[in-house]
Amino acid sequence: DAGITQSPRYKITETGRQVTLMCHQTWSHSYMFWYRQDLGHGLRLIYYSAAADITDKGEVPDGYVVSRSKTENFPLTLESATRSQTSVYFCASFSGTPDTQYFGPGTRLTVL
Amino acid sequence: DAKTTQPTSMDCAEGRAANLPCNHSTISGNEYVYWYRQIHSQGPQYIIHGLKNNETNEMASLIITEDRKSSTLILPHATLRDTAVYYCIVRVRTSGSARQLTFGSGTQLTVLP
């Protein structure tokens, strides 16, 4: 199916563990984004990527690592999870026509 | 990007038009008005955008005042499934280099049966 998917949809992990959130899009959009959404803060950009092998930091990148070896995939890794990284994570890809971002369904991550 | 001001919440009767206002008094000439919505527990969804002319698509209409300092998103026949947080975002249209979206607090629209 065409679109943007995220996995897992729900994840519970412990402090200090490494966690990778997956994002996959079928449109071959060049730009992809990772946001986190917390109560009281709205959506905040973590990282974005302009193309395969090109990534850049957003507003809140600390504690996260991204990679993009293929256009369609944009994984987000928490190298050593902390409780403050408990959040809902949204992946998005950008289309120029119309000028908009398409968001995935989100991953709800809980760090105990 | 220009700052936007939206009411915190609004109610609308099912079947009636929902009119969601947005103030953006510091908007620049090259900034567009975008509307997204986020239904509970889902990712944000693009609705519509415009520069200065009124726009309409299958989801909604966007009315931008002549001075461009405010706009209104119109859902012509609101249904219960339109209950969501609606975000008004003002920014320069991307042109070869996409930019992040900056979401404010938005308006919680509740459609009542």
Number of helices of chain B: 0
Shape of chain A: globular
Element order of chain A: H for helix, E for strand: EEEEEEEEEEE
Determine Rg of chain A (CA atoms, Å).
Answer: 13 Å
Unreliable stretches of chain B (pLDDT < 50, length at least 5) are none
Instruction: Indicate the structural class of chain A.
Output: mainly beta
Major sheet of chain B: size, sense and barrel closure? 5 strands, mixed
Biggest interface: A-B, 23 and 19 residues
The rounded distance between the terminal residues' Cα atoms of chain B is 37 Å
Q: Describe the oligomeric state of these chains in a short phrase.
A: heterodimer
Please tell me about this protein's structure.
The complex is a heterodimer of chains A (112) and B (113). Chain A has no helices and eleven strands. Chain A is an all-beta fold and 112 residues long. In chain A, strands 2, 4, 5, 6, 9, 10 and 11 form a seven-stranded mixed β-sheet that branches. Chain A has a four-stranded antiparallel β-sheet with strand order 1-3-8-7, with no helix packed on it. Chain A is globular. The termini of chain A are far apart. The mean pLDDT of chain A is 92. Chain B is mostly beta strands and 113 residues long. Chain B has strands spanning 9-13, 18-23, 31-38, 45-50, 55-56, 61-64, 70-75, 84-92, 107-112. A five-stranded mixed β-sheet of chain B has the order 1-9-8-3-4, with no helix packed on it. Chain B has a four-stranded antiparallel β-sheet with strand order 2-7-6-5, with no helix packed on it. Chain B contains no helices and nine strands. Classes of the chains: A mainly beta (112), B mainly beta (113). The A-B interface holds A 30-31, 33, 42-43, 45, 48, 50, 58-59, 90, 92, 94, 96, 98-106 and B 32, 34, 41-46, 49, 93-94, 97-98, 100-101, 103-106.
